[in-house]
Amino acid sequence: MTHDPLSQVFSALADPTRRAILARLSRGEASVNALAEPFEMTLPAVSKHLKVLEKAGLISRSRTAQWRPCRLEGAPLRGVAEWLEAYRKFWDGSFDRLDDYLDDIQKGDPDGPRS
Amino acid sequence: MTHDPLSQVFSALADPTRRAILARLSRGEASVNALAEPFEMTLPAVSKHLKVLEKAGLISRSRTAQWRPCRLEGAPLRGVAEWLEAYRKFWDGSFDRLDDYLDDIQKGDPDGPRS
DNA sequence: GAGATAACTAACCTAGTGGTTTAATACAGA
DNA sequence: TCTGTATTAAACCACTAGGTTAGTTATCTC
Predict the structure, then answer these.
(1) How many angstroms separate the CA of A45 from the C1' of C10?
(2) A window 78-97, beta carbon within 8 A of B
(3) pLDDT tens-place string over residues A84-98
(4) pLDDT tens readout for residues B2-61
(5) Residue numbers in B near A114 (CB within 8 A)
(6) Class for the domain spanning A5-74
(7) Which CATH code of 3.30.470.30, 3.40.50.1000, 1.10.10.10, 3.30.530.20 fits the domain covering B5-73?
């Protein structure tokens, strides 16, 4: 895997188990055991997922006795949001009519539909 | 690996070459050769990246003679935006985190912070 | 100190990814 | 029909990812 930050974040999010972990953490800190409970897989597997999330900056871990509670860190998602914003016009329905209009008046544009 | 749509989209976006291809396509349709030109890698490698993007629904391909022009399809990004929106309060400083957090606790939604 | 509990590491397996080279396919034009 | 161009397919390789089991470390409690 390429290790530029955005790629790491996208890669971390490309797994439903890890997204479920983030969803759980969005409701508050949780221990590894608590996070692993809903899944069929073993604890080391969950531990690996957590390491992926941690390397992407999406979670942080503190230490309380033998527990290492995980906390959601949303900051990397800002990069995703910024990347996504550049493409908003390609998926946001409220732009559809504008796109149609531009397509209409730009028929035959050699550089493409929206150059 | 996982074949749920959102995972496929995130996975497709987790590669800088593929994101660069999307950036290029955001300025209009392009042939495979044109898309491959900025990269060091061989043409079959680019062709594979395009296949990944196509399976994720992020591009479509038409046929004009021996050319297979690619076009950006933004629809799958809406799913990303919706997923991301649920976490906005964790990265957008303009949100009042405590209020949102309390709202979510009261809803007791198990699937995510705001879904 | 002796368990019990929480979490991690190590070693391993299978399958997938990203790249290559070489060969095949599809089409345009002379 | 032959040739050049655009693109994909096949076979292969090194590396990574996601999972397992078994063993280790850290800490609490008795």
Answers:
(1) 14
(2) 78, 80-81, 83-84, 86-92
(3) 999 999 988 766 555
(4) 889 999 999 999 999 999 999 999 999 999 999 999 999 999 999 999 999 999 999 999
(5) 26-28
(6) mainly alpha
(7) 1.10.10.10
